[in-house]
Amino acid sequence: MSEQADVKVFGSKEGNATTCSMEQIRNFVKQLRELELEMEGTKKKIKDLIADFTEEYSIPKKEISAARRMLKSDIDPDITSEIYANIADLQ
């Protein structure tokens, strides 16, 4: 590699700029890539866990996925069930 110069990064306001070295950028990108690789491994573990569970207990994957979405969205299952019961005939 050649000598590394500073990189001027412009902000949203005119004249507002900061500088960082190529080494800082390289370190950032390296750390980001390491985290992405860790996440890929974790996502695969989650996928395998769901597949094993749904196969072992014969639960449809879509039901598990819907329950997880409800949990992540902090949805009240009682209210959701009541609404569903009242609109199910519209299908």
Keywords for this entry:
mainly alpha; single chain; 91 residues; elongated; two-stranded antiparallel ribbon; 3 helices
Task: Give a verbal description of the structure.
- This protein is elongated.
- The relative contact order is 0.06.
- It has helices at 22-57, 61-73, 77-87; strands at residues 6-10, 17-21.
- It has a domain at 67-91.
- The chain has 3 helices and 2 strands.
Low-confidence stretches: none
* Structural category: mainly alpha
| Oligomeric composition of the shown chains | single chain
Spatial ordering of strands, largest sheet: 1-2
What composes the largest sheet?
2 strands, antiparallel
Overall pLDDT confidence: 87
Order of helices and strands: EEHHH
